[in-house]
Write a structure and sequence with these properties.
about 375 residues, about 10% strand, alpha/beta, 17 helices, six-stranded mixed β-sheet, globular, binds guanosine-5'-diphosphate, binds magnesium ion
């Protein structure tokens, strides 16, 4: 049998609060943060620089996917185009109009694109940064917003240099220095070298880490969860966010049903587990769309491997088949009970369950997804 743990003590420990009331308020905040944080990322730069491709890469899409921003098209729009994240609807990547036209007016541009909308700007170039990029950065700064310089299409440069016998290790610092020198008017801010074709290469991780250090914590969380899994490190960050949020989801399972604490017997809502695991599932990139693309790209049977997990399948099919999910979660005493009491798909179970059992179920599901996602990274050799 499971060991006796005092749910109240566990709640206080997990929340870091002194009273149950404060812990409940914190829990609600943690849960809201998983869903409701609004993040708006602006991608700017000259026409042809690679803005739309970066918009797609950040959203985990290739240029030919449904809903992808059109790329390689020469016509320009004068309006910013919002591209909502495919699975986190509060995260939007904005494809801004090109800045390269003669007579470009940064002040007017900033006004037209409604700079207040964005949490930060990414200024993209596939060559050295131009005067337009520099004046735009100055204007963004004057409006007290942050900007980051991204030099994209590095895969292409590296490839071309390799053909001439120049190694990648030599090419990268040369490009970096050249770009940074060109930005000395702005006191040479860092330039992040990336390729939208593969975010696991070059400086994308550094860019994300710089953003993490500079954005408010809740925005950072939305950013980390919304980015595709492109490395072991990016997965670990997501995992830690979910791990820290599990207790809060577990406790609000009771509160959502309008049932307040008594701690020991909170009404247990099965849909909470599924909603939590569905978020993990998409954020870890375990969904069919993502895996089908990855399997094809790296020519490995990754999708098949993941689909062997019945927990994944239950979440994927939205069958909300409680027995299937519960049976897959390891057979702790609590889980056995769960199997026997959860009758119909998707319904709220009016059975009293403890916060501890719910939390355990969330963590076990999370751990299984984490293991699978790690295996995906290994099979795809994403490092
Ligand atoms: N090799 C390579 N090509 C890229 C990359 N990013 C964009 N491109 C290509 O560059 C062209 C212009 O990109 P696009 O995103 O449409 O530029 P935009 O006009 O700034 O939106 C397209 O043909 C893209 O496929 C990249 O990182 N690597
Ligand atoms: Mg474009």
């Amino acid at each position: 049998m499971a060991e006796q743990v005092d749910p109240c003590a566990l709640l206080l420990k997990n929340s870091g609060e002194k009273t149950v009331e404060l812990a409940m308020a914190t829990a609600q905040e943690v849960v809201n943060r998983l869903d409701n944080v609004v993040l708006n990322i602006a991608i700017s730069g000259e026409t042809g620089a690679g803005k739309s491709s970066l918009v797609n890469a950040i959203r985990g899409l290739t240029d030919t996917d449904d809903g992808a921003a059109p790329t390689g098209v020469t016509q320009t729009t004068s309006e910013p185009t919002p591209y909502p994240h495919p699975t986190m609807e509060n995260v939007t990547i904005w494809d801004l109009p090109g800045t390269g036209e003669p007579g470009f007016k940064p002040k007017k541009y900033i006004k037209t694109v409604q700079f207040k909308t964005y949490d930060f700007f990414i200024i993209v170039s596939a060559t050295r940064f131009r005067q337009n990029d520099i004046v735009l950065a100055k204007e963004i700064k004057r409006n007290k917003k942050k900007f980051y310089f991204v030099r994209t299409k590095i895969d292409r440069d590296v490839e071309e240099e390799v053909k001439k016998g120049v190694l990648e290790e030599q090419t990268l610092p040369t490009i970096r220095e050249d770009c940074e020198k060109n930005l000395n008017e702005l006191e040479s801010p860092p330039v992040f070298l990336i390729t939208s074709r593969d975010l696991s290469r070059f400086d994308f991780q550094n860019l994300v880490e710089t953003l993490e250090a500079e954005l408010p914590e809740h925005k950072t969380q939305a950013l980390v969860l919304s980015l595709p899994v492109y490395s072991q490190r990016s997965l670990e960050k997501k995992y830690n966010i979910f791990k820290k949020a599990a207790w809060a989801s577990a406790i609000t399972a009771g509160a959502v049903g309008g049932i307040p604490v008594p701690m020991v017997s909170i009404a247990f809502e099965f849909t909470v587990i599924l909603s939590f695991l569905t978020k993990c599932y998409f954020s870890f990139g375990l969904d069919d769309k993502t895996l089908a693309k990855l399997s094809k790209r790296v020519d490995q049977p990754i999708q098949e491997m993941v689909r062997e997990s019945s927990l994944v399948m239950a979440v994927a099919e939205k069958t909300f088949n409680a027995k299937k999910v519960a049976a897959r979660l390891s057979a702790t005493g609590g889980m056995d009970a769960l199997c026997s009491i959860l009758p119909v798909a998707g319904c709220i179970v009016g059975v009293a369950m403890s916060f501890i059992t719910t939390q355990r179920a969330l963590l076990e599901g999370l751990n299984e997804f984490h293991k699978l996602a790690k295996k995906v990274i290994e099979m795809a050799k994403l490092e």
